[in-house]
Amino acid sequence: MPSIAVITGGAGDIGRAIAVRLAESHDRVVLVDINEAKANEVAAALNSKSDKTHQKESNDSDKFIPLLCDITDPTQVTKLPRKVLSPDEDSGSDPATVHTLINNAGATWSDSLHQMTPNTWKRETALNLDASYLLFHAFADSLKRTRGSVINIASVNGLAVFGNPAYSAAKAGLIHLTRSIAVEYGKYGIRANAVAPGTVRTAVWEERMRANPKVFEEVTQWYPLKRVVEPADVANAVAFLASRELAGAVSGVCLPVDCGLMAGQGVVAGSFSQCGDY
Fold first, then answer.
1. Domain 4-201+228-264: homologous superfamily in CATH
2. What local confidence, expressed as pLDDT, does residue 120 receive?
3. Which residues are identified as catalytic?
4. Where are the domains of the chain?
5. Distance of CA 145 to the CA centre of its chain
6. Distance of CA 60 to CAs 40, 54, 88, 95, 241, Å?
7. 191-212, pLDDT tens digit by residue?
8. What is the mean pLDDT of the chain?
9. pLDDT number for residue 89
10. For position 164, what pLDDT does the model report?
11. Which end of the chain is more exposed for a tag (fewer CB within 10 A), N or C?
């Protein structure tokens, strides 16, 4: 059986970067997304680039497979294991043998508790926390067979208050879910880890930059490295955690990929200490 990686939110900037990195160590990479057109577009582009790089034979299957799924719908998620193995069939095949599951999909629609409504709260927690449980539950048996790896894309918002309270609460829960998987499923050889990115330069932030050209200037002052995170930075961390050779004894950790944000802020330290060295 081929080694398979499944990435939710695979059509987004971070998902695409993760797919490129995991393609180096997996035979197939499945891009799960609710935006079918975008997932098809990304998979086609990556397959085209892969074909040119590796001179694919005409009878070889594509390396990147797009799959449509609303991961907040338990019924749709339950069908995913079979679809991953046979993308054109809903049933009738053996369950997929997945080596790596990346719960990457996430979004937020409310900036503060004042703006929050009960429906928005449910929508954000469903996508940012509940869906990751549903995906793990669906692929748990496959991961047991492969002694595989689960990597949940959390956020620094799950470690401290940076706004977006429902999203943040869900990401904090995702970090705890990660540890629960690591402890309970470690006996099956399954490793579970989380990555907590800071501000990532994605299309969402590009839209904010159009509204406020100084947004990155305002944001980067809080980062010790004086830059924001790139999708490739997140992908590199995921590739490390997915590797049995490099991280075979690493499980239950939350790795901030945040250009030093959670270490502390030089601007604040300088104000408190009245020292110019920060």
1. NAD(P)-binding Rossmann-like Domain (3.40.50.720)
2. 98
3. 167, 171
4. 4-201+228-264
5. 22
6. 18, 11, 16, 21, 29
7. 999 999 999 999 888 888 889 9
8. 93
9. 47
10. 97
11. N
For 27-63, write each residue's pLDDT tens digit: 999 999 999 999 999 999 999 998 776 666 555 679 9
Rounded Cα gap, residues 252 and 269, in angstroms: 31
pLDDT number for residue 90? 47
